[in-house]
Design goal:
The complex is a heterodimer of chains A (753) and B (148). Chain A has 753 residues and is an alpha+beta fold. Helix content of chain A is 57%, strand content 6%. In chain A, helix 2 packs antiparallel against helix 3 and helix 27 runs antiparallel to helix 28. Chain B has one domain: Beta-Lactamase (2-Layer Sandwich). The chains are: A alpha+beta (753), B alpha+beta (148). Chain A: InterPro entries: Adaptor_Complx_Large_Subunit, AP1_complex_gsu, ARM-like, ARM-type_fold, Clathrin/coatomer_adapt-like_N, Clathrin_a/b/g-adaptin_app_Ig, Clathrin_app_Ig-like_sf, GAE_dom.
Chain lengths: 753, 148
């Protein structure tokens, strides 16, 4: 059998292949040759063959048949064999094949080899792909080697130990004795790897962490020497001595100083020193500064230092290098909650970043901008943010629009400004606005009573321009339906009232019904709006006609509505005015976006529920039930049930028609009976707390329907650990006969809703 | 866990010139990662940062990369790691390669792939930076070469 071709030859040959198929053919031919060569157990050329196999593996071809050959190479005495063998092991073998365990013995021998380079190979392999079993078996050897004075080996062994700890955390204790004098090394490389080992141990175990806290002064000293000492050519990068070591020490200091006052105090000075003395002209210096900032923000540093850190970040924002700007924005985002005022100072720079070219920078700048909006800067910020909304990529528009709505709600300086802002968002990014903002906006509009005329006028004009953006169209049609009378009477005070007739308005609404651009939901809005106008406009006949046409619409939803409205005209005309009268002010449940008003039947508009005056807070149905219960008992209500403005349901006959929709409550969770035995009944009802919508208030109604008093009533609640709760009232009490006791139980919203 | 998950050297066409994995991945996972990295990194140009942090693509890690001529050097690290420091790490590594191969070019990496792995192993181990002094690394590399 002729000698297998050399590696170089093979590579050259493969590179001449012009198509994938040609390459595949060459590779298969070579693999076949290699396979037969392996079968012959030829020691001389094994190394060459495996090397070729590895090359082919790197191109993406299967090479598993070479695994055992790698092991044979590792066991050989020649360095070149070992080297390729270990490389092959690292590339072809991994934990999931049992074959890899066969390496363990070889590695063990090699760890004790006389040549440091062989030891190095073994350490490297163990450190890169050693499985847990291998690590367990060889941990002892590694620990022994940790004591070596050979710095070349020390570096490798230390990191190998790190790997062992990662794979088998229980063995960490074993390495503790060897760490005694880790930091007294002079050799930078060894010091570096030692710091990495210490970091790993401290991160994994709080005991180790407290144990190593005493090293803080030493670390501070080392760092100081690094900064102060002059030029050290070996580890110098652009004039800074061993920046990698500096960064690692800073990180270790961070872990040690976190939540420990004394340590944090001890490192205050050095951090300030690094922060002020490091060269910032190149990336290297900035890398160190960045790590310093991260450390300052994480430990218990004094406020002066924190401000220094944030100012560094602010300076980063002005840097030409976008990497640095990016990194600064990311950090500022993390600290904006805790150091709000300090970050505010850099607001204008942050807002400038909205115009950056890089997408990830823009996104972070946007998030940060929203976090910085407050009552004082709302006008200026909103201008910038709206401009951003106009010009940004579609992927941002939805988030930006929601952010704008939220900010506007919280800090709007005036109602008119608020409405204008909403209009601006709807007209520029109308199609990206989230679906649930439509009900929010509607609710907002109803609440600004004095702005109704202005709002409807502006919305009408917007509709004339463009009917493609569905959220805009939906809000507009709802408003026109509600306030159409204001529109035609030209009552607007805020701006020049426009002249529009009833027919023109109906034209527009009918146009929505027939347009291809309107979604079914939009059509629903439009139809209902037309119907509502029947009590506000005089051209009732026209409306009747439209409604009856849609009685046979293919769209089931439209058809149902039209049929019901028809019925209103025909059979219940006397009730029509009452049913379609102006909506009252709706109370808001929460100020946060998406989880607000629960959709009912997938339809968000409340128009058909007009007469129900849906209370955003609690349980109309349950309230009725509770009252009935009391009536049965004929007893005294000791403590009135919590809450509020709950006007009674109209008991009028119109109720039957709408009864299908009658018991749709707008809360997330229906009340439930937890216990009902022997005359003791316990019910839970759920609502959102008024001041803080993230708290759910669970009210426990306990009632006693027996003839006797119940004494020593103890109520205990078991909740899963994840929820934090506070029991407001002590629940031990005396329940009088025929009475009810209620107590509050606050629970964090996340787990309930 | 702050560490490097893998180091990749790819050319613009997507051919892998070096793939060093410090974490367990299946073969198909490895292939997928290589393709994802290639897709993400080749569409970026000078106006983008050198960091790719995208929750949809890379769950809780990020890619620090830099382009040198026709090659992309990518390091995949934890999201909590210091981007700028790893960028320096890449540059350090490239300078060593340059020195070792005397003005390195892509073909050097192709024909001497096993030597490139040796360089990686001298500078990184167990997913951490091991030796940062270029002079020391070069000295070791020459020693190793003399053993062949």
């Amino acid at each position: 059998m002729p000698a297998p071709i050399r590696l170089r030859e093979l590579i050259r040959t493969i590179r001449t292949a012009r198509t994938q198929a040609e390459e595949r053919e060459m590779i298969q031919k070579e693999c076949a040759a290699i396979r037969s060569s392996f079968r012959e157990e030829d020691n001389t050329y094994r190394c060459r063959n495996v090397a070729k196999l590895l090359y082919m593996h790197m191109l993406g071809y299967p090479a598993h048949f070479g695994q055992l050959e790698c092991l044979k190479l590792i066991a050989s005495q020649k360095f070149t064999d070992k080297r390729i063998g270990y490389l092959g092991a690292m590339l072809l073998l991994d934990e999931r094949q049992d074959v890899h365990l066969l390496m363990t013995n070889c590695i063990k021998n090699d760890l004790n080899h006389s040549t440091q380079y062989v030891q190095g190979l073994a350490l490297c392999t163990l450190g890169c792909m050693g499985s847990s079993e291998m690590c367990r078996d060889l941990a002892g050897e590694v620990e022994k080697l940790l004591k070596t004075s050979n710095s070349y080996l020390r570096k490798k062994v230390t990191l190998c130990a790190v790997h062992v700890i990662r794979k088998v955390p229980e063995l960490m204790e074993m390495f503790l004795p060897a760490t005694k004098n880790l930091l007294s090394e002079k050799n930078h490389g060894v010091l570096h790897t030692s710091v990495v080992l210490l970091t790993e141990m401290c991160e994994r175990s709080p005991d180790m962490l407290s144990h190593f806290r005493k090293l803080v002064p030493q670390l501070v000293r080392i760092l100081k020497n690094l900064i102060m000492s002059g030029y050290s050519p070996e580890h110098d990068v652009s004039g800074i001595s061993d920046p990698f070591l500096q960064v690692r020490i800073l990180r270790l200091l961070r872990i040690l100083g976190r939540s420990d006052d004394d340590s944090s105090e001890a490192m205050n000075d050095i951090l300030a020193q690094v922060a002020t003395n490091t060269e910032t002209s190149k990336n290297v210096g900035n890398a160190i500064l960045y790590e310093t900032v991260l450390t300052i923000m994480d430990i218990k540093s004094e406020s002066g230092l924190r401000v220094l850190a944030i100012n560094i970040l602010g300076r980063f924002l002005l840097n030409n290098d976008k990497n640095i700007r990016y990194v600064a924005l990311t950090s500022l985002l993390k600290t904006v909650q805790t150091d709000h005022n300090a970050v505010q100072r850099h607001r204008s720079t942050i807002v400038d970043c909205l115009k950056d070219l890089d997408v990830s920078i823009k996104r972070r700048a946007m998030e940060l901008s929203f976090a910085l909006v407050n009552g004082n800067n709302i006008r200026g910020m909103m201008k910038e943010l709206l401009y951003f909304l106009d010009s940004c990529d579609p992927e941002f528009k939805a988030d930006c629009a929601s952010g704008v709505f939220l900010a506007a709600e919280k800090y709007a300086p005036s109602k008119r400004w608020h409405i204008d802002t909403i209009m601006r968002v709807l007209t520029t990014a109308g199609s990206y606005v989230r679906d649930d903002s439509v009900p929010n906006l509607i609710q907002l509009i109803t609440n600004s009573v004095e702005m109704h005329a202005y709002t409807v006028q502006r919305l009408y004009k917007a509709l004339l321009d463009d009917i493609s953006q569905q959220p805009l169209v939906q809000v507009s049609s709802w408003c026109i339906g509600e306030y159409g009378d204001l529109l035609v009477s030209g009552q607007c005070e805020e701006e020049e009232p426009i002249q529009v007739t009833e027919d023109e308005v109906l034209d527009v609404l009918e146009g929505l019904l027939v347009s291809n651009l309107s979604t079914p939901v939009t059509r629903g809005y439009a139809l209902t709006a037309i119907m509502k106008l029947s009590t506000r406009f005089s051209s009732v006949n026209r409306i009747k006609k439209v409604v009856s046409i849609y009685g046979s619409s293919i769209d089931v939803e439209l058809q149902q509505r039209a049929v019901e409205y028809n019925a209103l005209f025909k059979k219940y005309d006397h009730m029509r005015p009452a049913l379609l009268e102006r909506m009252p002010i709706m109370e808001k449940t929460a100020t946060n976006g998406p989880t607000e008003i629960v959709q009912t039947n997938g339809e968000t508009e409340p128009s058909v529920l007009d007469t129900k005056h849906p209370p955003p807070v609690t349980q109309p149905a349950n309230q009725v039930r509770a009252n009935d219960l009391l009536d049965l008992l004929g007893g005294n209500d000791v403590v009135p049930v919590i809450q509020t403005t709950l006007p009674t349901k109209p008991a009028s006959a119109g109720g039957e028609l709408l009864d299908l929709l009658g018991d749709l409550s707008l809360t997330g969770i229906p009340p439930m009976t937890a216990y009902n035995k022997n005359g003791l009944k316990i019910e839970f009802t759920f609502e959102r707390a008024n001041p803080n919508p993230n708290i759910a208030v669970i009210t426990i109604h306990a009632s006693n329907s027996t003839e006797a008093d119940m004494t020593d009533f103890v109520f205990q609640a078991a909740v899963p650990k994840v929820s934090r709760h506070s029991l407001e009232l002590i629940l031990k009490c005396l329940i009088m006969k025929h009475s009810r006791v209620n107590s509050l139980f606050n629970q964090n919203c996340a787990t309930v809703f | 866990m702050n560490k490097i998950r893998f180091i990749l050297i790819q050319n613009r066409a997507g051919k892998t010139r070096l793939a060093k994995w410090y974490m367990q991945f299946d073969d198909d996972e490895k292939q997928k990662l290589i393709e994802e990295v290639h897709a993400v990194v080749t569409v970026r140009d000078a106006k983008h940062t050198n960091f790719v942090e995208s929750d949809e693509v890379f769950r809780n890690f990020k890619i620090i990369y830099r382009r040198y001529a026709g090659l992309y050097f990518c390091i995949c690290v934890d999201v909590t790691d210091n981007n700028l420091a790893y960028l320096e790490g890449i540059h350090n590594f490239v300078e060593v390669l340059n020195e070792y191969f005397h003005n390195v070019c892509e073909l050097d990496l192709v024909f001497n792939f096993y030597k490139v792995y040796t360089v990686v192993d001298e500078m990184f181990l167990a997913g951490e930076i091991r030796e940062t002094s270029q002079t020391k690394v070069l000295k070791q590399l020459l020693m190793l070469q003399s053993l062949e």
